[in-house]
Write a structure and sequence with these properties.
Elements: H1 2-13, H2 22-25, H3 33-44, H4 53-61, H5 70-80, H6 86-99, H7 112-117, H8 137-148
Helix pairs in contact: 4-5
Length: 155
Amino acid sequence: RNTYNLSKIIYERFNNIIPNSFEELETLPGVGHKTASVVMSQGFGYPAFPVDTHIHRLAQRWGLTSGKNVIQTEKDLKSIFPKKYWNKLHLQIIWYGREYCKARDCYGITCKICKSCYPTRKKPIKTKKAWMKIIGIGNAIVDVICKVDENFRYR
């Protein structure tokens, strides 16, 4: 139903042109902040850092946020990483999580980022709301992602 209503509104109210602002996108049926962020970043090239549950989990696992929700995690990630990397970095984090730091496989001890961030960690962890600030951790994570797959180089 949302797809039909969304299409009808885009046709009638926006002359068949996808809105290019967060405010207008978020008025559409079925479009929340994350979807609007994806459209703005991937569709229009506007700097945005869409955060879903996967990025939220990884950011917590890597010690980048203590946020209890995706809104706080988005704020934390935006404060760590330079704006010019947001659009590509959110895709890199999703890809890295799917390939190397899976929700049910890594638990903070298997992938290169987890081992780099926490070299003395021996026991598997479940994502918790703990915060550990490590100087330069943001760049270290990006560097590890880029070393794993050269196609995802951002520089």
